[in-house]
Amino acid sequence: MNFPTTCPHCGQTVQTEYLDSGIHDLTCPNCQQRWVLFIRKHRFEMLFDLGTRALLMGFAREAVSNFASALERCFEFYLKAALLERAASEHRDLTTVSRELDATWKLLISQSERQLGAFAAVYFSRQGQAPDFLTPQSLQADFRNRVIHRGYLPREEEVDAYAARLFAIMNRLLEELGDAALQVTVLQEREYAAALDRLPGNVTAVFEEHPGMFRTRREQTQPPQLGSPASVPPTPRSAASSAPSPVLNDAAAFQTALRERGTLVAELFGKRKS
What we know:
With 274 residues, this protein is mostly helical. Helix content is 55%, strand content 9%.
């Protein structure tokens, strides 16, 4: 999926393909100058934005696949943030814990049910309550399977309802995480800092925070400093567990976000359907 960015040397708009790493090594076709673009966005955010763009463009079936993938990656995001938060409370090294966590996740990466089980256990441990939104009904698993595995062609209103449900679940998880979400952001910033350190001195680095459907907490708004950023202090357990959970079936929340930020998402990836 392509998106527009601006050459820092000549101001030309350049279309480039989004990369999984978020790091884009670019050469302007107009002035032939090189620059490296760092996008501050987590994978689940990008996937949900791609689903939103597909929905706005009228590609309902394609939107379902992106929304479903976004939810799975949001579960992974929550799990990693919660475990890193616990490690920070124990004053463990963030880089070491992250490496061990990645090695553990590789054992689950090909099996969605194991990932879901791991997430459920971590959620219960942190929140002190069962993840009541993991039922097949709440996740609309039958609808998802009919679309993805059985070739069902959904109506736009069905996809709207599916997106609203998943948006509510993901928004709830981000609210419950609070500042713990910054733990994963710190890791991304450290990866970007390492990549920045490897660049030749004559290559311009540009950091962008593209608009999206979620407002995930960010650790920094300036290019990361080289070195070893400290772990974010853990969110107090009382604050994490006492905050009220957002309503899961609040379709109005998704529609509000769609009005506020959906147009920006559509403009980021292409024109909105007329």
